[in-house]
Amino acid sequence: MSKVWFVTGSSRGLGRSFVEAALSRGDKVAATARDTGSLDDLVAAHGDAVLPLAMDVTDRAVVLESVKRAKEHFGRLDVIVNNAGYARIGAIEELTEQQLRDQFETNMFGAVWVIQAALPYLREQGAGHIIQLSSVAGLIAMPLGGAYQASKWALEALNETLAQEVAEFGVKVTVIEPAGFATRSGKNPDPLANGHVSEADPIYDGLRRRLADVMGKQPGGDPAAAARALLKIVDSDNPPLRVLFGRGFHPMLQQVYADRLKTWSDWEDLSAEAHGRLDHEDR
Prior knowledge:
The protein is an alpha/beta fold and 283 residues long. It has ten helices and seven strands. It has a seven-stranded parallel β-sheet with strand order 3-2-1-4-5-6-7, sandwiched between helices.
């Protein structure tokens, strides 16, 4: 049985690949983009199977109306893909208030508006699957990625909570954590290209150069392969809450989590001391 998808950020990158993969196997897709002209070729190729919708995820009213239109047009919604997002690069000290707010408005609040718009329909159906694009940066923290990582860490917690809230309605939640992909949107954000609030500093400049070097050498994954993997997830009767898309990060994540557990263990006595003695508190 074919599925009906609602995909944000469909004009390029992984979102575009997800839409193409769904359409290629006969599914129907409500594809959103700020400029629907970028979807004209999909409409020409797939006709009524595509519903192009002009939508900015930061506009809650437009999101609500777009999800409603998709449901009315196709009759149901099966797979909701929260894909829209971008990365702000810069040291914490350098971030302006507007830059930080804009990062959260798109990456976190935009995802919330889509979830809130779609969930009543999924609950009524007693079925549905919410896919949240996070990142490896939603699990670890590195210099110069504070704004982006904070937004993705927030999404990780939000969707883990959501999964527990909606499971009994028959609604599934999966968080996808991609590594780098060679998408059609071009290059990753350039750490050397962003404006900097603070004066030139050799430490910050060194961090930028090292990050630019790492990003320049990072092998790009195949977006089409990621799309095929996503199809397996949405077709699964028991999909994962979290899944990595990409190679090479498992050892790093294992070390990060081992270090966290060790630190908590090393300071366990102080943790107990901070809590105080219950018999003392009861007096």
